[in-house]
Amino acid sequence: MVDDPTSACPTTFGQEPPPAMERRAVLRVQQGKAAPAEDALADEVPVALVYNGISHAVMMATPADLEDFALGFSLTEALIDHPGECYGIEVEAGPAGVAVQLEIASRAFVALKERRRSLAGRTGCGLCGVDSLDQVYRTLPPRTGKAILTGAAVRAALAALPERQALNQLTGATHAAAWCDLAGRIAAVREDVGRHNALDKVAGALARDPGLRMDDGFVLVTSRVSVEMVQKAAMAGAAGIVGVSAPTAAAVRMAAGAGLVLLAFARGDRFTCYAGQEQVTP
């Protein structure tokens, strides 16, 4: 994704974000009997992404790996073209939430201001950052390679993922996105209460690691596969996206048009290939 991502986006922390999980006293009721207990809850807080001093978006997210989230969001939403256009990230927690300050290249900042100007005065944003219908389906970068996704690799990744979902094991409340190489080895996992956030986080983690290339593997997500998930995976450069639940028809059309392998209903030893059949072996 970048020639030297180790030089991109150094991170500093002001006041640390709150923990991603908290424990609460609860009352468990079973078979007509009640008993006090303690439960682990995944947290979510407002996270503001601020570019060169201008707030662009506020989203609810799990307060972990926020530097990866900010960089990944910037890449998958095409706010920057590559990690080298991010010069630094500062994460600062406050009483109302967490502000993630990003310093980005002048070219990217000018484009961002133009984008914001076109949205001025609009309310009820469902697809934030989009001001016309033709912008909903973005032009995705064409894939030049034809990586082969094997059934063995998909099964290996599916088997290995649960033990890498530490927060979900405690809370049962988070989605995960994992980057897997073509042998099915998991190199990075990120979790969040939002499936889009988890994918942004793993894209950011990949962009920060000089030893990993997104196009040498696939993304595995513990969710359905929507248009937005396909767009983010394609913008990050993945060879394919594998979801444990259903895809939408629009997501399948987009994946096919972008040359992205799309597998869904991936559970245990089975999956269904919806796009890129010629690049999949059982």
Automatic annotation (TrEMBL):
Annotated coiled-coil segments of the chain: none
UniProt lineage: Bacteria, Pseudomonadati, Pseudomonadota, Betaproteobacteria, Burkholderiales
Pfam family, one: FdhD-NarQ
Location within or outside the cell: Cytoplasm
The protein's role, per its UniProt record: Required for formate dehydrogenase (FDH) activity. Acts as a sulfur carrier protein that transfers sulfur from IscS to the molybdenum cofactor prior to its insertion into FDH.
Keyword tRNA processing assigned: no
Family recorded in the similarity comment: Belongs to the FdhD family.
Molecular function GO terms recorded: sulfur carrier activity; sulfurtransferase activity
GO biological process, one term: Mo-molybdopterin cofactor biosynthetic process
The UniProt record lists the keyword ATP-binding: no
Record gene name: fdhD
Annotated catalytic residues: C125
Key words, A-Z: Cytoplasm, Molybdenum cofactor biosynthesis
Gene Ontology CC: one annotated term: cytoplasm
Species the sequence originates in: Pseudoduganella umbonata
Major subcellular site: cytoplasm
Positions bound to Mo-bis(molybdopterin guanine dinucleotide): F265, A266, R267, G268, D269, R270
Protein name from the UniProt record: Sulfur carrier protein FdhD
